[in-house]
Amino acid sequence: MSDPTVENAESMMDKITEIIHNHEVSSSDSESESEKFLPSKKSRLFGRQKPVHHVLGGGRSADIILWRDKQTSASILGGVTVIWLLFEWIGYHLLTFVCHALILSLAVLFLWSNLGSFVNKAPPKFPEILLPEELFVRAALSFRFEINRAFAIFREVSSGKNLKHFLMVIAALWVISVVGGWFNFLTLFYLVYLMMHTLPVLYEKHEDKVDTFAEKALIELNKQYAVFDEKVLQKLPKAMNKAKKQH
Question: Transmembrane segments in this chain: where (predicted)?
Fold first, then answer.
């Protein structure tokens, strides 16, 4: 004859085990359901993994571009804008501008050096400026590297091995030629500088929205290119082979 106390204890243990098992199952189900709604890792523009400040090189130059030092950034932008207005609207010429700037600087320094004793001011101290040779060597090497890379890209595109790169380069050159027809070189240079001085800081403030829009645009472009590749590009080699056979 079984002991009722033992039976009660066993039934109680079974209930506890069942409760624990049901809790584990429900918790695992809730975790799996919640994982479905977890946001995936957001892709950034141009595939970057680091902050914008670090991508721009960090340091003072990045601070100026991202307007961390507002006074310096505004001063540089204002100076470039004044120079552009002098050349574009007033009709100043580069050589005339350089000569007038040198004349004004030399006149001020000359008068300051000779009249400083009459106004109880020390004459200006002119520092000895020596440009380091290493700076020009590194600049020349960087320029040489960029030219060689441009020649390599030109050779790769013109070889006919990659039709996609060929079409991209042709489209980019065509867009640049159209934009270049709207402005002269000085205005185009100023607009490029203006975009470099304003777009990074705007992107940093709204990078989530820009990255989302860019990701959707890239997906749509890839879809359109896939359709174009299927209907046009893949048929070009066949048409060329048929033409060769006919000849």
Answer: 94-115, 166-193
CA–CA distance, 14 with 28 (Å, rounded to integer): 21
Digit-coded pLDDT (tens) for 115-127: 766 767 777 777 7
Is residue 61 one of the residues assigned to a domain? yes
Long-range contacts of 158-164 (CB under 8 A, 24+ apart): 163/233, 163/236, 164/225, 164/229, 164/233
Give Rg (Cα) of the chain: 34
Please tell me whether the overall predicted TM-score, pTM, comes out greater than 0.85 for this model: no
Q: Is residue 243 part of a domain?
A: no
Q: What is the pLDDT of residues 7-64, one digit of tens each?
A: 555 565 565 566 555 554 444 444 444 444 334 455 666 566 677 777 777 777 777 8
User: DSSP labels for 64-77?
Assistant: HHTTSSHHHHHHHH
What is the spatial distance between Cα 180 and Cα 172, in angstroms, rounded to a whole number?
Answer: 12
Question: Domain range for residue 135?
Answer: 131-182
**Cα(203)–Cα(56) distance, integer angstroms:** 13
The token pair at 229 is: 């590749």
In whole angstroms, what separates CA 84 from the centre of its chain?
Answer: 25
8 within a domain of the structure (yes/no): no
CA dihedral 66, 69, 72, 75 (to 10 degrees): 70
Rounded Cα–Cα distance for residues 53 and 106 (Å): 39
